[in-house]
Design goal:
There is one protein chain. With 137 residues, the protein is of the alpha+beta class. The chain has a single domain, classed as Gcn5-related N-acetyltransferase (GNAT) (Aminopeptidase, 3-Layer(aba) Sandwich), CATH 3.40.630.30. Helices cover 26% and strands 42% of the residues. It has three helices and seven strands. A seven-stranded mixed β-sheet has the order 1-2-3-4-5-7-6. The longest helix is centred in the middle third of the chain and has 15 residues. The protein is globular and about 35 Å long.
């Protein structure tokens, strides 16, 4: 597998997010202004895009988001690998904490990767979400 960072949202990442968040999960507002100020990660296997994420600074934290893996690759721990690569990049950029907004159904996945829940549960397009964070330094 190859992990590549891009300074702009490329078509490979758009395709994955469209398939996962819009077509599979029914979200309507997948692409936003934050994409313009984010660093984007795309995961490739045999030169085919199979996963993606974005990260952007907000105050003293690095925010992780739009973490997605194509359905046929989900049982291969690629999501955990994506988190690890994002955390290493955040550490390289001198951040000590990473935060994210997780769908409640994915909360246990993030907990297994060392994230803790904070704040109240809220709805994003009728889907329950929670804020989570992890100290990386």
């Amino acid at each position: 597998m190859k992990f590549v960072f891009y300074k702009e949202l490329i078509e490979d990442a758009k395709m994955i997010r469209q398939k996962v968040f819009v077509e599979e999960q029914g979200f309507e507002n997948e692409f936003d202004d934050i994409d313009q100020r984010s660093l984007h990660l795309v995961v490739y296997q045999d030169n085919e895009p199979i996963g993606c994420a974005r990260m952007y600074p907000e105050r003293e934290n690095m925010i992780l988001g739009r973490i997605a893996v194509l359905k046929e690759y989900r049982a291969l721990h690629i999501g955990s690998d994506i988190l690890h690569v994002l955390e290493l990049k955040a550490k390289e950029l001198n951040y000590q904490t990473v935060c994210l907004s997780a769908q409640v159904r994915a909360k246990s996945f993030y907990q297994k990767n060392g994230y803790i829940h904070f704040g109240e549960e809220y709805l994003d397009e009728y889907c329950p979400h929670v804020y989570m964070k992890k100290k990386i330094a």
